[in-house]
Amino acid sequence: xxxxxxxxxxxxxxxxxxxxxxxxxxxxxxxxxxxxxxxxxxxxxxxxxxxxxxxxxxxxxxxxxxxxxxxxxxxxxxxxxxxxxxxxxxxxxxxxxxxxxxxxxxxxxxxxxxxxxxxxxxxxxxxxxxxxxxxxxxxxxxxxxxxxxxxxxxxxxxxxxxxxxxxxxxxxxxxxxxxxxxxxxxxxxxxxxxxxxxxxxxxxxxxxxxxxxxxxxxxxxxxxxxxxxxxxxxxxxxxxxxxxxxxxxxxxxxxxxxxxxxxxxxxxxxxxxxxxxxxxxxxxxxxxxxxxxxxxxxxxxxxxxxx
Length: 307
Hints:
Layout: H1 5-16, H2 19-26, H3 30-44, E1 49-50, E2 57-58, H4 60-83, E3 94-98, H5 100-105, H6 107-113, E4 122-124, H7 131-139, E5 145-150, E6 165-177, E7 195-200, H8 205-209, H9 211-217, E8 221-227, H10 230-238, E9 244-247, H11 248-257, E10 261-262, E11 270-278, H12 284-293
Parallel strand pairs: 3-4, 3-5, 7-8
Antiparallel strand pairs: 1-2, 5-11, 6-9, 6-10, 6-11
Helix pairs in contact: 1-2, 1-3, 1-4, 2-3
């Protein structure tokens, strides 16, 4: 019978991709961790990690084992709860990293939907300006959950492709502009004129997701302002400095009042998913939270090898 703690070692290493960091977090020496991973590899009968490159990456056998290890540990947790209903105490909490727009305009109402019978203690950690920094903090173990907009074409999301997630909903980023005296956009996407663009900082989610539109519009679109936060860009667009694509959850009232108008038709809309990613390494409290919020959702994972 194999020691199931080896699966915990395995999952931690999958997330950190670093032997020394995993050994430190798991409270053992690096040599001990290496022996434990070797024991698991002997049990499976194949190498689980490619150690020739840094950070380490999963082999094909490691990719196959990953969902099995996750399922084994989660079923063990479920069995533990049968006779230990007090295991998730009300004074416990879990941690979540969220992109700032979702933190302000989505997270509070969404969490409230899952607190009908009891409140959940979820600490929001400080949001970094760029997507990659938030993902790096999540992968380093600072939080059990990451709430983000998602589009599989965004390169910075690739490190998450071996993590499970649920799709909580969809959001549309709409091209908007301040209106002129005739109620038309000051900076229309149709036509041939130059378009002043209040842009997202390089490395932000929307800067990457909007790349096909930038290619389509070519040199007509000229960045005049730059910021990583949609809230700041929202203010600049309202003042007439330029146009931008802004999440509908942020600008719905502006479109209704006429403070902002569409700068282009629906063919210029950017539709994204809202995803909640979960860590491989979670406390019992976080496991309970995940079980609650994932009810009724398909649990997804990109079945591709980590490069």
